[in-house]
Amino acid sequence: MTTNSTKLPHVYSPEVQGRRERLGVRLLIVANGSFLAAMMFTWFYLRNLNTNNAWLPKGVHTFSVASGWSAGAGLILAGVLHGIGIQNISLRRLTSKLVLVVLVIGAYLEWHQMAHMPFIAQDADSRPFYNGAYASSWVIMAGTRMFAYLISIFVALGLVIRGYRVTLNPILEEWRQRTAGSWFTWVAIAGFLSAVTISFR
Amino acid sequence: MTTLVHQSEVSSPAPVPAKSLITKLNIVTGFIVGAIFCWGTYYALRAGRDMTDTHNVNKVLIISMFMWSLGFMIGIGALIGPFRWLIGKDLTPEEELYMSGEGQGMKRYFKFCTDHKVVGIQYLVAVMVLLGAGGTMAMMIRTNLARPGSHLVLPQIYNSLVGLHGITMIIAMIIALTGPLGNFILPMMIGARGEAFPRLNAVSFWLLFTAIPVLCSAWFLGGIPTGWSAYAPLSTQAGPGMNAFLVTIIIFAISTAVAGTNITTTVITMRAKGMRFNRVPIFVIGCTISVALAVPAFPTFMAAMVQTGMDRTISTGFFDANVGGTGWLYANLFWIMGHPEVYVILLPGVAALLEMLPVFTRKPLFSFPMAVAGMAGIAGMSALVWAHHMYMSGWMPALNGPFMVTTEFISFPTGLLFLVFVGTLWRSRPWLKFPMLCVYAMMWNLLIGGITGVYVSDVPLDGTLHGSMFVTAHFHYTIMGAALSGAVGAIAYWFPKLSGRMLNERASYISFWFVQIGLNVLFMGMFLVGAEGQARRVANYSEQFAGGNLVSTIGAYSVGVGMLVFLWAIIHSAGKGAIAPANPWGAKTLEWTVPYPAPVENFSEEQVVTSDPYGFGKRVSK
Description:
The complex is a heterodimer of chains A (about 200) and B (about 625).
Chain A: E1 3-7, H1 14-49, H2 65-87, H3 92-115, E2 120-122, E3 128-130, H4 133-163, H5 170-199
Antiparallel strand pairs in A: 2-3
Chain B: H1 27-46, H2 54-76, H3 80-86, H4 93-99, H5 116-144, H6 155-175, H7 180-184, H8 186-189, H9 198-220, H10 234-237, H11 241-269, H12 282-313, H13 327-361, H14 368-381, H15 400-409, H16 411-425, H17 434-457, H18 459-465, H19 469-499, H20 505-532, H21 546-576, E1 605-609
Helix pairs in contact in B: 1-2, 2-9, 2-11, 5-6, 5-9, 5-21, 9-11, 11-12, 12-13, 12-14, 13-14, 13-16, 13-17, 13-19, 14-16, 17-19, 17-20, 19-20, 20-21
């Protein structure tokens, strides 16, 4: 392998660094997507297999379809709002804060549902258990969504705070907004997919 | 051939950033904070709970183990970067330079260091420790199996030995090349000054580091009675040691995703100017395909472990048929990861040997595109074969045929790789140094592992061989015989770059013959008893298998001796070996242009690549 040599640059340009970070986030999204796909596989596999007719045993209550969508709506709305902020710089500070608020409300809704699950029964030793594969699949899907909320709140909070820091490199920050955009787009898709999935009871 | 030799630079310590927390954090603070988090959580959660309830025990243990990992990462300073990003006060250039460990000597190996070369050495030590531990357990297993009715270890301990040997070796082999060489050498090979995400890179190593004590804790919690596959519902009913297993896997899956992201991004975005994809060294391509395959594969195993953990702690029923679950769900999720994982292990080893083959034959690589197509084909098809592990489980018998066909189709891309090896060797006069011997060993072992793989992928034959020692011998030929030979050859080949010294040749040759003869004796014996029907993962066996097992155990001791000699060669040569020339093999790849010790940013000048790395001359017309 032959080489020519030129002077080494000391720092990478914001564009180079920004593209690199965006690719990295997209690869992490692939990993997260694989996890979500495993959860969806779990849902549909157990539902269709219906072992011992215990996907939804008789008398077990479920969440309404609307409640599944309402818990996922925060992720979808955050993705839309962040997209508006990317397109319109003058609205960005406002949309950043709205994204954060929406995510916090969504996380609260998710937590509230998880705290009031209607399908927990008690075994002979008075120990609670998740009655039916629907219940098991629902709680892990909710946990997956909660994880997405927590990561997204971290990112959104960071973007809000960084929006007020004038010392940061504006070009690199613009790239980071777009990189965060990749994440928020993904969580919107993930929120939609999880809501669709749990609509199949 | 270009061998640019720079003068070694004597680096001076980076200025210590004033009032920065990162200067005070290291592995000791990591252990302290980790222990506080772990034991604090343990005692806090125990209070007021009925600890005779296994679900409560599992809850307390799992949360405490995760808190250990989190505490360690906080204590070593891994979360300073994300926290500073959150509050909008990014790390200063002085702090970044300090974290790169420049001029900090041995101390940097015990800190959260972002220099990819330091992380590479950290991974190398971790791999050696894991292989040593896994190998010791293998010797105990083989000693127990030397004679029928031997009660060297109790059956329960034997079960745990098998499980812990399996998972320890799997983790060690997954990181065996992409960890040390994917970090140390790969960025230099592409002419990069570093890696795309140096902090994430260090996070990936230290996460793995935190998983090791967790895995070891399984011994003190009753062991892992399930084998490394941890099939449900056995795993959901196993004792507290199982918690250590699942926490290890979850941490390792995160570490792997982060490492895969870092290496893939580095290769895609940081190649030197002029390094088009057809000029990228084949080892870099093999590593990239391997880690990129791991990124989507491991989260499915992680998902299965999360579900196992939930079944064990909060009484969900993913794998409990009474409440609508099924063990088939686990088997699917596990093997969707499990078969790609074989190629995550194998491809870097094969690629490393392909990398050194032109160097030792002084010929261009025979059909670079074919080699890339072979590796990409294997990676792509590996996602379509998982259910061949489940023929005998009764899951979807109608799919057995299609999965048999897809599995046997993997022979085609594998055949392409063999063609490249044979084509490059054809009419060459190889320079028979130790790494080159590893090429021959890998070809022999992979051939046997591959052909027997066709046997066990065949549905009717699998009905007889499934769950037997035959299968154990098959995958050991592939993973140990082929991938480990590749890893050993690669470590030897790049040893001068890692240590600045040559690996002791005599010890290497002695090690080679002990290991290669030993492993063939070991696994041929296993093939024999397996074909006769000896079940795997069983502590005792019938008298009729005595001969084959004794032969296998003798082979295992030979492997053990050989590996000890190789370990001695590495440790001795790193300290007292002959000083290595800048480019001892006369290779043409860029890493050999970097001086030893390599500067923090590898190259003092930007590299512009103008030719391919295997241009060792063309055939001279007669």
